[in-house]
Amino acid sequence: MSGLSVADLRVTYAGRPPVEAVRGVSLSIAQGETVALLGPSGCGKSSLLSAVVGIVEPSAGAVAWDGEDLTRVPVHKRGFGLVFQDGQLFPHLTVGANIAFGLEMAGMARAARAARVEELLSLVGLAGLSGRGVTELSGGQRQRVALARSLAPGPRLLALDEPLSSLDADLRGRLAVEVRDILRSSGTTGLLVTHDPAEAEVMADRVLRMDEGLLV
Ligand code: ADP
Ligand code: MG
């Protein structure tokens, strides 16, 4: 099976009583496809996404890519990227340096890095803004930089957790279409988490509904 497969994944947070945030979810996402997880706040969407990318350890179940088990593989070795609601850019770095960050970590040479940054800037519609400080950007521009930074290393899967929720409604609608087009044109497989049905419909090829820790 090519792409992502998730088998009977469970996430339980320790506590008294423990919280069973994800109670046995199985799904697959084909290479190049974008799937949205849609459900109300607290239903376990972020916990499921976090277990898929590897920032939360599942209590049971498995995550695989192209049939290769990744359940015990650390987050930076999965080849997955992540975009959060508020971007979480490095405020003291320029746009270009934010986008180059992961490339530098991966040991890419300076000239190749600069070329890749330019490529990503034009992909997200921010050509020419490489030298700008990220604190001088609008909310929508910041989310584009976050998207570019996550896409720069060429992840095989991009996980997006409510990526547009901090933006106003008008911009949210426009960026939803743009992000979908960017995922498609870069051939990136997507896992989108959202509580907004319209956003799920626009951005995803397929929408899965989640409630109380389960797909419904
Ligand atoms: P969603 O993203 O759909 O809003 P979450 O996955 O964030 O849902 O949360 C699912 C459940 O797990 C909620 O009851 C939430 O309070 C709980 N939860 C989330 N993160 C933690 C954590 N780190 N520790 C304990 N409980 C958590
Ligand atoms: Mg969440």
TrEMBL record:
<feature type="domain" description="ABC transporter">
    <location>
        <begin position="4"/>
        <end position="216"/>
    </location>
</feature>
<keyword id="KW-0547">Nucleotide-binding</keyword>
<keyword id="KW-1003">Cell membrane</keyword>
<keyword id="KW-0813">Transport</keyword>
<dbReference type="InterPro" id="IPR050093">
    <property type="entry name" value="ABC_SmlMolc_Importer"/>
</dbReference>
<dbReference type="InterPro" id="IPR027417">
    <property type="entry name" value="P-loop_NTPase"/>
</dbReference>
<keyword id="KW-0472">Membrane</keyword>
<protein>
    <submittedName>
        <fullName>Thiamine transport system ATP-binding protein</fullName>
    </submittedName>
</protein>
<dbReference type="InterPro" id="IPR017871">
    <property type="entry name" value="ABC_transporter-like_CS"/>
</dbReference>
<dbReference type="InterPro" id="IPR015853">
    <property type="entry name" value="ABC_transpr_FbpC"/>
</dbReference>
<keyword id="KW-0067">ATP-binding</keyword>
<keyword id="KW-0410">Iron transport</keyword>
<dbReference type="GO" id="GO:0005524">
    <property type="term" value="F:ATP binding"/>
</dbReference>
<dbReference type="GO" id="GO:0016020">
    <property type="term" value="C:membrane"/>
</dbReference>
<dbReference type="Pfam" id="PF00005">
    <property type="entry name" value="ABC_tran"/>
</dbReference>
<keyword id="KW-0408">Iron</keyword>
<dbReference type="InterPro" id="IPR003439">
    <property type="entry name" value="ABC_transporter-like_ATP-bd"/>
</dbReference>
<dbReference type="GO" id="GO:0016887">
    <property type="term" value="F:ATP hydrolysis activity"/>
</dbReference>
<keyword id="KW-0406">Ion transport</keyword>
<dbReference type="GO" id="GO:0015408">
    <property type="term" value="F:ABC-type ferric iron transporter activity"/>
</dbReference>
<dbReference type="InterPro" id="IPR003593">
    <property type="entry name" value="AAA+_ATPase"/>
</dbReference>
